[in-house]
Task: inverse folding
């Protein structure tokens, strides 16, 4: 009985007809296209953009230079050195280098940060033309939007 059913399925090309039905159904369905430069679709809330440093409401950096992100990173993206200033309660990073060309966007650095100083940004435009734009120092870790694009591009500007 099984042999007969298998023979009839292969003889009448049942699997090919099922595949064609799916193709035809999707071909005639309504298309969803976003005209990218004119309309920008916001990324999903779970989207993992660039890891960025953040500040508190007063403008003070949240990073306490504990180096947990450096230890958790499997690709050695981070190079952090901290220093405690006279009378300060916490250490602050004196040197915070992050290498975009090594990052795998795994999220370990974001998960281990005790102060939530490092988080993924919603930035999805990661276009650059020079390799030196892929190295971020401490002050550049706070860049967002067009300033971030200028850094990635290495100072080049698009001419309209």
Result:
């Amino acid at each position: 009985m099984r042999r007969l059913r298998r023979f009839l399925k292969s003889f009448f090309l049942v699997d090919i007809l099922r595949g064609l039905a799916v193709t035809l159904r999707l071909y005639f369905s309504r298309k969803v296209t976003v005209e990218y430069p004119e309309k920008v679709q916001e990324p999903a809330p779970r989207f993992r953009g660039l890891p960025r440093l953040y500040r508190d409401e007063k403008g003070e950096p949240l990073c306490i230079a504990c180096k947990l992100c450096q230890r958790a990173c499997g690709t050695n993206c981070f190079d952090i050195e901290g220093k405690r200033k006279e009378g300060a309660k916490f250490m602050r990073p004196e040197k915070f280098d992050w290498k975009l060309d090594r990052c795998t966007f795994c999220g370990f650095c974001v998960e281990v940060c005790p102060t939530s100083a490092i988080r993924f940004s919603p930035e999805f435009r990661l276009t650059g033309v020079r390799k030196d734009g892929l190295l971020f120092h401490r002050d550049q870790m706070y860049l967002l939007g067009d300033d971030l694009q200028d850094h990635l591009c290495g100072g080049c500007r698009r001419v309209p």
About this structure: The radius of gyration is 25 Å. The first strand starts at residue 51 and ends at 53.
